[in-house]
Write a structure and sequence with these properties.
Strand order of the largest sheet: 1-2
Distance between the termini: 9 Å
Number of helices: 10
Shape: globular
Number of strands: 2
Largest sheet: 2 strands, antiparallel
Structural class: mainly alpha
Order of helices and strands: EHHHEHHHHHHH
Radius of gyration: 21 Å
Helix content: over 70%
Length: about 280
């Protein structure tokens, strides 16, 4: 590891503020823009090459559809591609989260170290995702069952709207509560379930602020995507592809920085633990 010129962000017992978290996120992201951009791009290119090769080979053409309207081969290829994209996203997220924490503690890490940490922690990230997916499905199934029971017994048709909105709110709360489980898993070296529990504990009482932070980040992704899409209109298919790739690169890497900064700020505000202390796990 090599020292960088960043100032360690170690304000103990500081207040968790939306503005300070976003400012810190921008500082960390643009302070490492080239590194994060190149790292994300390097991992993204192989998957893109696979997808491009399959498209070029005509795998997804209409003529390959089976009697049911779609070929099992296409379905399998779609699942494989989605899985590869998910793995790539986790490698990027874990690497960038680690690098952000290191940067804010006054140090820098190499591309190889970022990749190694991604590989070391990717199983935990997948485990966290599986549990969240099961929880989301459980909420949707529960809402559907409640709706059916009430409608069949009381004949209240509008209850479906109510349960749908309630299910959405619950899912959003779950996603926010679990949003920092990966940084917890990486830095505190807890198991999957304990990392999720810890994430909900740290986010308790701060979910509205976290929601606002993630919404601002989402708006930023949208603005960047729209600008790139408009610019791609002056080119052909290649320009469109490049704009989509750049949007993915930006959104994936910047969201990881935001998650890392949210985590370190929650630790500082709730437990008085500075970034340098958190980063000691990487020594």
């Amino acid at each position: 590891m090599a020292d960088n010129n960043s100032i360690p962000i170690d304000s103990i017992n500081k207040t968790f503020r939306i503005g300070s978290v976003l400012s810190e996120s921008f500082d960390a992201y643009f302070g490492n823009f080239i590194k994060f951009f190149v790292f994300t791009l390097i991992l993204f290119i192989p998957v893109t090459g696979i997808v491009g090769g399959l498209i070029y080979a005509g795998l997804f053409e209409r003529g390959n559809s089976g009697s049911l309207g779609i070929s099992p081969v296409i379905v399998a290829a779609g699942f494989i591609i989605a899985f590869l994209y998910m793995l790539t996203a986790y490698l990027i997220q874990i690497g960038v989260v680690s690098a952000t924490i290191e940067y804010n503690s006054g140090r820098a890490i190499s591309f190889s170290t970022m990749f190694e940490r991604g590989v070391e922690n990717i199983a935990g990230a997948l485990g966290i995702t599986i549990i969240l997916v099961v929880a989301m499905v459980g909420v949707l199934v529960g809402a559907s069952l409640v709706t059916n029971v009430i409608v069949s017994s009381m004949g209240i048709g509008l209850v479906g709207i109510f349960t749908g909105v309630l299910a959405f709110i619950i899912m959003v709360a779950i996603m926010i509560g679990a949003s920092i489980a990966i940084p917890v898993f990486i830095t505190e070296q807890k198991g999957v379930f304990k990392s999720l529990k810890r994430s909900f504990h740290l986010s308790k009482g701060r979910k509205w602020e976290m929601l606002a932070i993630f919404m601002v980040a989402g708006i930023l992704y949208t603005i960047v995507a729209v600008i790139l899409q408009l610019l791609s209109g002056f080119g052909g298919a290649i320009a469109v592809f490049v704009s989509q790739m750049l949007t993915y690169v930006f959104s994936t890497s910047f969201s990881a920085v935001v998650v890392a900064v949210v985590y370190t700020n929650l630790r500082a505000s709730k437990e008085g633990v500075g970034t340098s202390e958190i980063a000691k796990v990487f020594e």
